Amino acid sequence: MLGFLRNWRRKRSLRRSTLDAALWRRVTGALPFLQGLSAEEWQRLHDYSVLFLAEKEMHGARGFTPSDTVRVSIAVQACLPILNLGLDAYQGWVGIVIYPGEFRVRREETDETGVVHEYEDELSGEAWPGGPVILSWQDIRLGGAGYNVVIHEFAHKLHMSRGDMDDFPAAHADMARAQWLAAWEAAYARFCGQVDRGMDTVIDPYASADPAEFFAVLSEAFFTLPHAVRSTYPELYGQLVLFYRQDPAARLPV
Predict the structure, then answer these.
(1) Which distant-in-sequence residues (6+ apart) come within 8 Å of 36 by Cβ?
(2) b/e for 124-137, b at 16 or more Cβ within 10 A?
(3) Less crowded by CB within 10 Å, the N or C end of the chain?
């Protein structure tokens, strides 16, 4: 019954959509990693974006008012990773908070002696389990090949729905779980070794922080810098193709 009502609401939202065609072309035209999508994929991305805007609530923070351009830009980039997974992959939460720039959060950390240290961390994005996604519009605008804060934070949301954030997310049921984990563990160990030795890396060294960050950073690079990911981590790239059910390197020019 709940599924029937959800599908009915979605069909109604699509019929009543007021998404401006010129705005859609302007926003998507500024995102080069969307090149190569088929006509069917473009239509699905459009429909998912309309439904995303209808089902999620976006609020500005620190005096920021999200314009239609801001809202559509976030929706499009959030929906790309789930293009072949379905909008239900983002079930269970509704809020998106948008700051004009980086924002500060207070952290607590306990050292090995049991002493608790408090500090402030400056972030461009954050995803809360069961809660909102928080984004910096300035960092969204600064996105480029290999860096995309929207895809990064929504990859965290997918991870949260698929297992422990202290480990890599679970593979889909139709994937070989052992191969999925082996590819991640081998790539992560290699990457952390490179960072420890001070070597230049294709992706942000921040990805060495923990498995969750490695997954999120690899996900944003997978969609925006796919040829480099495929060249550097061919086995892991193949697993990401199976996980996201997309092959960005096959549709994007080198």
Answers:
(1) 248, 250, 251, 252, 253
(2) bbbbeeeebbbbbb
(3) N
CA distance 88 to 123: 27
Contact of 215 with 242, CB cutoff 8 Å: no
CA distances from 148 to 40, 138, 201 (A): 24, 11, 17
CA dist list (Å): 196 to 94, 144, 201, 236:
38, 26, 11, 21
- Cα distance between residue 210 and residue 232, in whole Å: 19
Q: How do the pLDDT tens digits run along the chain, 254 residues long? A: 557 778 888 899 999 999 999 999 999 999 999 999 999 999 999 999 999 999 999 999 999 999 999 999 999 999 999 999 999 999 999 999 999 999 887 766 766 776 665 766 788 999 999 999 999 999 999 988 999 999 999 999 999 999 999 999 999 999 999 999 999 999 999 999 999 999 999 999 999 999 999 999 999 999 999 999 999 999 999 999 999 999 999 999 98
The residue type at 132: P
List, in sequence order, every residue forming a beta bridge with 232; answer none if it has no partner: none
